[in-house]
Input
Amino acid sequence: MVQYDKSNKQLLTSACIQCPDVEFTRRDKELEEIGCCSHSPTFGLGEIQHMLVWEGKEEVERQLVYREGSELSPYSVMVNAFVAPSYHKEDTRNLNQIEKADLKLSYSTCQFFVSQQGCSLSPHYKPSVCRSFICSTVENQLESADKQAMNQAAKEIRKSSNETHDRLKKLLKWYGVTLKKDRFKVYEVLIDDYIK
Ligand code: SF4
Ligand code: SF4
Output
């Protein structure tokens, strides 16, 4: 039910084709059901480095930096999901922050999601959360040994991504550059590091 695609460091499940998880069900039935691709992905330095090397600086600018709702942090980029206009018809006055965020999620669509197809990104550019997350609905349908193998694989994916991110962050700190202040210098450092 869940496969570990080791070469691309990602977990895959056919369950996503017809997402069974009620937590991710749309409130507005006019919207396409897209499961957990309603969230806003954050790209770490490893993913940015891969995109730079294989697609070039212009593509990183187009795909990540200049997208509507893109938020640059010193060492990562978050691309906010689009929120359907029908969300604004909801009365959120009596909701707490968490309830409000959950409600908003059910009206959101990741900008990299393509209707009827799924994620448009190469696995090399997908954030580790996207590559390692499997919902509890799918997890609970697994035999104990498969569940253990899945959790182990998810741990490996996150560990490898975090290690790359931390190493590159240390390197950028050494150069004294950040994505917020001087991203073209960051691009050069990341490309040089990869081809060394
Ligand atoms: S991982 Fe779970 S919640 Fe996400 S799309 Fe697949 S089945 Fe749905
Ligand atoms: S980046 Fe891809 S996998 Fe991740 S939430 Fe967006 S569409 Fe889904």
About this structure: Residues 2-195 form one domain. The longest strand covers residues 2-5.
